[in-house]
Design a protein that fits this description.
Length: about 240
């Protein structure tokens, strides 16, 4: 298993000699201990950001429940409350995507350590799948950067959590139009109910359609972006360090 670019020697025979890790070779026991402590630290930070992700999702669920409760609580309540909830959900989605990009920094390092350090140990392999994984992690520690783009993060959180939530809002909006102020199946009347005060039904439907088209664009474009998941993007820096 790849351990370090520097040679690893046995522990010093003289126990009283002071070890200087800036100039002396790193022995195997200290190397393993350092990796374990690094792993624990990265897991701790990842868990902290994971809790922030869950908090934002909880806010989104609470916003959806409040909007549905208000819209269906009164017959004369406007369906605008559901569309306003969409705007709030979009803000929360953007916030959660930003938090996910930070969480993914720690997650990427954790996965690099797990697949190249703990994995080979458990399989009793002598070499890591990624020969320069230590240099990659070191370079990322020296110059931290995001491993996913903003659009990718938006798509990931949209698929993971927010797509069903937006679907519930859309379904609630349709039901609201059908049953309030009284149940109807007349297409022309449903069209007229789409109006929002001075805003005509055509303009209202156009804005709503544009919103969901935007979500569809995020799903498609975010999936086809060239920068892939777990893209470390520091290959040139690693090559310079190796020379």
């Amino acid at each position: 298993m790849s351990v370090s670019n520097r040679d690893i020697s046995d522990p010093p025979t003289n126990p009283t000699r002071r070890v200087d890790y800036e100039t002396d070779n790193l022995d195997r026991n200290n190397y393993i201990a350092a990796i374990i402590h690094l792993y624990r630290g990265e897991v701790s930070r990842a868990n902290a950001w994971r809790m922030r992700l869950d908090q934002t999702t909880n806010w989104a669920v609470l916003t959806t429940a409040s909007a549905l409760g208000f819209a269906f609580g009164r017959v004369d309540a406007s369906h605008f409350s559901l569309q306003f909830a969409n705007l709030l959900l979009l803000v929360l989605l953007t916030l959660e995507a930003r938090r996910f990009r930070f969480f993914d920094v720690w997650r990427s390092r954790i996965r690099m350590i797990e697949t190249n350090f703990f994995g080979p140990i458990l399989l009793r392999h002598l070499h890591s799948p990624e020969s320069d994984w230590g240099a990659l992690v070191a370079a990322d520690l020296n110059e931290p950067h995001f491993h996913v783009t903003k659009l990718q993060a938006l798509r990931l959180r949209l698929v993971r959590n927010y797509l069903p939530i937006f679907g519930v809002i859309l379904l609630g909006w349709v039901i609201k139009l059908v049953i309030h102020p009284w149940a109807t199946s007349d297409i022309l009347e449903l069209y007229q109910r789409c109006a929002l005060g001075p805003v005509g039904p055509a303009a209202s439907l156009g804005v709503i359609a544009a919103f969901y088209v935007m979500l569809a664009v995020i799903l498609v474009v975010g999936h086809t972006e060239r920068q892939g998941r777990d893209n470390w993007g520091i290959g040139e820096l690693v090559q310079e360090e190796m020379q």
